[in-house]
Structures are given as C-alpha cells and as structure tokens.
Amino acid sequence: MYQRAKLGMCFIKCVVICRFLIQPTSGIIYTQPWASLDAEVRSKYNFYVKAEDAEGKYSLAEVFVTVLDLNDHPPAFNDNFLEKTMAIDDDAEVPNNVIEYAIMKAEPDNNIFDIDADTGEIKLKSYIKSIAIIQNITKKRDCSWSLVVQARDRGQPSFSTTAVVKIDITEAVSCNISAVVVYLYLQ
C-alpha cells in the first residue's frame, strides 16, 4: 500500500506574493484579506509555488492569475470637445469600456440632429442644407439648441452619464457656396 507523503507549500518568488497567501497543506491560493485587486490597476500576476515533501524532494509550478474587470466606472464626458461628443470609460475591458451615444432631449424640441452611436459625432440630418430649411422646420430665427447627450457603457450593470451640449448654427456663404456650420460647446 502506498503512503501519501506530507507536502508543504510555499511561494518562491515574492514580488507579488504580498497580495496572495497559500494554505501550506492543501496548496489553495487565496488573496490576503486586506488585498484589493483591480483590473484597471493590474490585471495579471504570476509567481512560482514550491511543493516540498519531508525528504526534501520538491516540485515547482508557475501560477498565473488574471483579474477580471468589473464594470465599476461610469463614462465621463471630455470637457474640450468641438464637433464630436467624446466620453471615456476607465474600465479595463470590453464591453465595460465600450460607449454608446444617444440624444435624449433637444430644446427646442425638433428632429434636426443625428448622433453617431459609436463615435458621438453630432450632425445635422442629411436633408438640411441651409439655414432657411432649419428656420422653416423650427419656425424660429435663432439657430441655437441645447441637446442632452447620453453616454452609456455596455457593461453589466450598465452605467451612463449625460451632458448638455449647446449648439449654435450659422451659415457661411463664400463664392456662391453655402455651408451650414455647427458650433458645439459643453455646458
């Protein structure tokens, strides 16, 4: 009949070990009770474990730990954008850091703007080619709007934030070519 040798486990490389502990008889590796692992700070650890019996025979194993990202950061708008609504999400991994954009509200309430859901770029609807068309649709001479733009991440649970974007539209006429110019600024 075979006898099972008593093994003792210990860490060999102690660079990251302060965050982990090993149960000497079972070899189960735990995080220290006080240790905080955050994928945004560091997502991968590796170290060696040595298993040794009473006779001094041992074996080494390299252990790789991957810290999974939790969706723990909401998107945040960048304060200095012009023509594009930009938000960032400090989560480390997809889908937690992938942002979708939407116009939640426009004042005055009308339907003349589109937003690219992936990039946040705000544009006039494709059929709007002049100030006259805008004024005909809106029945107002002042061409300024307030849009509430939402940035939502794709994590579970999903987080979102909103920003008010002020838009002033002027018409530039040069050499008989008319262009609608949109100025954006964050409120």
From TrEMBL:
What Pfam families does this protein's entry cite?
A: Cadherin
Q: Which UniProt keywords apply?
A: Calcium, Cell adhesion, Membrane, Repeat, Signal, Transmembrane, Transmembrane helix
Where in the cell is the protein located? Membrane
Q: Which residues form the Cadherin domain?
A: 20-77, 87-171
Q: Where is the signal peptide?
A: 1-27
First-listed, main subcellular location of the protein, grouped into a coarse class: membrane
The organism of origin for this protein: Xenoophorus captivus
Question: What SMART domains does the record point to?
Answer: CA (SM00112)
What phylogenetic lineage does the species belong to?
Eukaryota, Metazoa, Chordata, Craniata, Vertebrata
Under what name is this protein listed? Cadherin- member 1
